[in-house]
């Protein structure tokens, strides 16, 4: 129990550290490839801040959305995609639900195509995990509650992360967040809302 509690604290602090660094990164336009244009994400599945169609959720086929990275900062060596449900608090509020964590995406990548296959390693060499295992996990908020807020964060890094997958999603997330600290060149965020149909 003592080990589990200390692991939870480590995960929470790692996420907070990475988030704090991302918030202090200068606007991507100041360092980005677009010469004044900030780094952004576009999503082929739903509009930013809009409701997520069932196709991408546990009420449908759980197809991963197609993401495009725009105006990545100069010097980007890799990307990390972190999709999570901040309305699901676990471990006394330190952790939320991980729906998709993909890291070591090559810096030359322009994004992730819709419908990524399951498996710990994707065809481009990047690694993935979620609360369901080595695959995308669609949103699944219950119909009886409010719409949940799903956040997709894309981080541009000046390094390639050497983080191995693990059976428990919280461990690789903590390790990825810790390894990112000090290496974030830019960040872009995209949102979606969902709960199961009534």
Describe the structure.
The protein is an alpha+beta fold and 198 residues long. Helix content is 19%, strand content 31%. The strands form two sheets. The protein has a six-stranded mixed beta sheet with strand order 2-9-8-4-5-7, covered by helices on one side. Helix 1 (2-24) packs parallel to helix 3 (170-180). The longest helix has 23 residues, at 2-24. The radius of gyration is 16 Å and the shape is globular.
Key words describing this protein structure:
198 residues, alpha+beta, 6-stranded mixed sheet, 3-stranded antiparallel sheet, disordered N terminus
Describe the secondary-structure layout.
Elements: H1 2-24, H2 28-31, E1 40-43, E2 50-51, E3 67-70, E4 78-90, E5 95-106, E6 111-112, E7 127-129, E8 148-157, H3 170-180, E9 184-194
Helix pairs in contact: 1-3
Please give a quick description of this structure.
The chain is of the alpha+beta class and 198 residues long. The chain has three helices and nine strands. The chain has helices at residues 2-24, 28-31, 170-180, and strands spanning 40-43, 50-51, 67-70, 78-90, 95-106, 111-112, 127-129, 148-157, 184-194.
Mean pLDDT: 84
Distance between the termini: 39 Å
Rg on CA atoms, Å: 16 Å
| Percent range of helical residues | 10-25%
The coarse overall form would be: globular
Question: What is the N-to-C order of secondary-structure elements (H for helix, E for strand)?
Answer: HHEEEEEEEEHE
Class per helix and strand makeup:
alpha+beta
Largest sheet: 6 strands, mixed
Strand order of the largest sheet: 2-9-8-4-5-7
Number of E-state strands: 9
Poorly predicted regions: 1-17, 19-34
Q: Please, how many helices?
A: 3
| Residues in β-strands, percent | 25-35%
